[in-house]
Each structure stands twice: as C-alpha cells, then as structure tokens.
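Checked the freezer inventory, then went back to the computational side. Two predictions to log before the end of the day. The first one is the construct we discussed on Monday; recording sequence and tokens without edits.
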Amino acid sequence: MWIINCKKAGYENKLILQDFILKFNKSEKVALIGKNGVGKSTFVQLLLGILPVCECTISYDGLEIESYEQLRNIIGIVFQFPDDQFLGATVLEELRITAANFGKSKDEVDRLIHLFKLKPLLMCSPLELSGGQKQVIAFAITLLSEPKLLILDEATSMLDPISKRAFLEQVFAFQKQEQIAVIHITHDFRELPFFSQIAYLSNGVIEFSGSYQDFIDQLELFPEITLPLDLQIAYQLYKQEKISKMPLKKEDWEEVAWVLKSLI
C-alpha cells in the first residue's frame, strides 16, 4: 500500500496542502480531481521534491521512503505538455537516450517499440507528432524507469475523446500487466468510472476518497462541483431513479436516451 501523509506543504508565505492524506493499494487506479488552485499541482511538486515547505511522509509496501532520490527511482510522471520532456531529435533517439540514462538494454527499447507499435514513428521528431502520439511516447519513455507509481498530470487534457480513450486503455493494459499504481489528475468527470478510487481535493485537503458510485451518491455534499451537461442530465435521471446507475458504457447511454425520449 501507498500512504502519502502531509501535515503541510507549499511555500513560505502560502501553505497549499494541509492534513493531506492519500492511501491506495500498490496496484490501484486513482483519479485525483478538484478545481484549479486547490493543490493538484502542489501534489506533483511534492512528489518531485521541489517544495520549499514540506512536512510529509511517504511510505510504500510498509516502508517509509527516506529520500526524494529514492522516491524518484520508483515513480514516473507523464505531464500535460510532454514537449519539454523530449531530448532526442527522433523517437528512436529519445528512447535510446532514456534507456541509457536508466541503464536499460536495446532489448528493452525493442520491447517498448513492439508494445506500443512505434515502428512507423521511429524516425519522426517527437515534437511533430499528434497530441495522442506524443503522450504515448512520453508514457513509453517513463516506463523505462520501471515505476511502481505512475502519475498522469492532466496527461489527457489536450486530447480529443477518441485519443483519450486509446491512451488510457494503453495505460490500463500496462498497469494491469505490471501491477503498478496509477494516479490520474484530471478535470474530465467522464473518465472517473474507469478508476477504482476517486479522491476529491479541496482547499488542500482530501474531502472524499472512495468508489465512483459512492462519489456520485454523495455528490450533493459538494455543491461547488459542476458536472458537464451530459452528466448533469444523467445525474438528475439517476436521482429520480429513472435510470439504475450513472452511464458508463454505450448501452448505458442508450438507456439514458430512451428515458429522455419517453419524457418528451
């Protein structure tokens, strides 16, 4: 299990995280949500060890992590804008540079090329790829560090819905295979059903932590949360018991459409 416990974290003149506690299993998928300015970016900076004020403890598998150097060896981060992560002139060079930095062999590079079907992109500049392709490359090079915890720092926010789904499916497939934990920082409530734990961050504190269904059932406790219009409609139908659950799959949305049609 991972336990991240922060008494306080932030800056000399402004504390951002206070009494922040996040617990999750070492192979769990966690969605961390919250409005802008509540501490999500501070949380990432905490994991990077770049906060001037940080009274926190982080433990993994029952052992407290004693240094940020030790922490960096077991976490990987995919950022919203991956361009700044790229060093190589081509995708192949990027993979080789990262592999050399982590002492990985050519076989490991070849494995990632095969796993993510990167062969057609190898001689392309990473900077010239589509948003979805860039995130896949960023994800692949992050995996060369063999992380125990993967952080997606709004990594899907610039992607279209199809690319989001495809990217997350690749992440989940690898997460299941390697049994690592994933924390996905997101503003997209449509992504939440795919995660086993929803953590709602407000004013530097985790106000809610639980399943997606429990989050939906307690949503009225958080009036500051605004759902996108399609989920607002579905939520009202769910509250009125006109649908049995919040929609996830295509057939669930077909049920929503059928109920709406019957009300017209």
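The second is the one RB wanted added to the comparison set:
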Amino acid sequence: MCLCVPSPVSPHPAIALPTDTNSPAHTAPHSNHRLRENPRQTHPPHAQQLHSPPSSDRLSARLEKHELRAILESIRDGRLDVDQGVSRLRAWPVRDLGHSQLDTHRRVRCGQAEVVFGQGKTPQQILEIARALLDHHDRLLVTRAAPEAALLLASELPHAVHHPTARCVTVEPENGLEEEGLVLVISAGTSDEPVAEEAAITARLSGAHVERIRDAGVAGLHRLLAHTERLQAARALVVVAGMEGALPSVVAGLVDRPVIAVPTSVGYGASFGGVAALLAMLNSCASGVAVVNIDNGFGAGTMAAMINRRTEVTKR
C-alpha cells in the first residue's frame, strides 16, 4: 500500500457533513447517519494536558513486541511447531487485502502504525483497510478522507470521529491518548487551517500534547509576539503559511527549537499553488527550519511528534 506524501490540493474542502465547533453544521444528503463531530479539535490555548493511564500508546507497542517474543520462544522451546509459528506470524509483516498490502509491523519498527491516505481510494477500500488496521492497533488515522468515505467510516466504525476541517477520520484508544511534551502548531491565516489541523491531529494521535496559535501571520506580527513564552516552551513547532511563506523564518528567529515549515497552496496567481511559499521557506535565512511538501500537514505533524517523543526519552 503506497502512502505517499499528499499532492498539493486546494485547502478549501467541500464538506457537506456535520462540522467541528469552528464551522456551521451541515447534514449529509441522502443519509440517515450523522457523523460524530470531533468533541475537541486539538487543545485550545492553555488547555490542560490529558494524562491517561500508560496503557494506550507505549504499552500497546510493548504488548506487540512481547507477543512476537512469546511466539519465537514457544518455537524455540518446542511448545509450538514451526508451521504453527508461521501461521501466527503470517499477518505480522503484511496483511494482503488484494487492493492493498498493509504493513502491520510498522508500529514495532517505527513506533506508530500505518496511516491511511484516503485520496484516490474508494470508500469501501478505506473501510476494509481501516478494519484491518484496527485488528492490529488501538488507533486509526485516515487523511484526505472524502465526505462519502468519512460518512461510511462513521457509520461502520463505532468510535470513528470525523474532523471535517482537516479532512481526517480518527479512532482513538478506548482509554484515551497518553500525551506528553508540547508541539505547537501555528497557522498564518484562517485559510491555512485545513493543513494546520491535519498537522495537529496527526501529532496528537502520535502521542504529543498539542496546542494551537491561529491567524498569526506576519501582516500583524504583534499577534505572534504575544505568545513568545509559549513559542519558547514547545519542543517542536509546526508553522503553516501560504502567500509569501515568511512566518516560519520569523518564528525560527524567536526560538531555539526545531521549526517545521509547511507551505500551503493558499494565495493569488503568482503564489503558483504554494510554490512561492515553498521556495521562500527553503531559502529561509533563519537556522533550524526544515520544510515539508506543499499542504503536507500530516508529514509535519509526524515529524514534530517524533522530535517531541525523542526529547522525552532523552530527558529520562
């Protein structure tokens, strides 16, 4: 299954479904199902960090490794013959669904499960992939989910939550997420929100405590400077901007933490669908700026969560 970096798309989703708290509610046509709205889009400023029992994230990964070790030790000790061991391990590296081959071993190797890139897949394919992943993992993230796919997932998966602004669908562990550290996601303008929310949701589902600063572009720099203490407290910062793409350079000049810049396809003609912002960020004069692809909130959120997680390990 290929989960490539999303290609540039318009940041203005056409969602005819119930929306989050920042959008007016809509009802999906020709359906008796209502999507579960996200009870909380990522944490608002100064929100308290959620502390869940350590049974959700690290424990689940440890259990997977423990199960693998138990199978191998059983074969070694003769309590399980080789054919039985092969049968049990068959679905570990790959689960073949015909249209997709799921990497069910990714969480053991990389610390987080495979994510579903919904664009270009049919709703039924996404549902089959989602069910298979949930057979192995306690959480699910589907990015670039079309309205009809989100509706199907919400009706078929009991705990699925649709995030229409981010165009994502998530399933969280039953005991909640164990959040740590601080990833700060900053958007230059309201038009950048779909990409910023995708980054924030991705980082949070990957175990990071996430906070947001919205609409703090360089046209009104005082809006950003009012949050200087929060900027300096974050372990990693995701900065999302279209137009001329100057905001990541400004943020990087205020902090000693990694800044992950995300260009968006927001802007008038000469922005070239985000290319202008991309080139500006790649040519940043501020140190400590890394750049992901245009509109790639998922890639930025993943990178920020990895930095956040390694910082926590280093502290221990």
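For RB: The chain has three domains: 58-92, 101-171, 180-315. Residues 101-171 form one domain. Let me know if you want it refolded.
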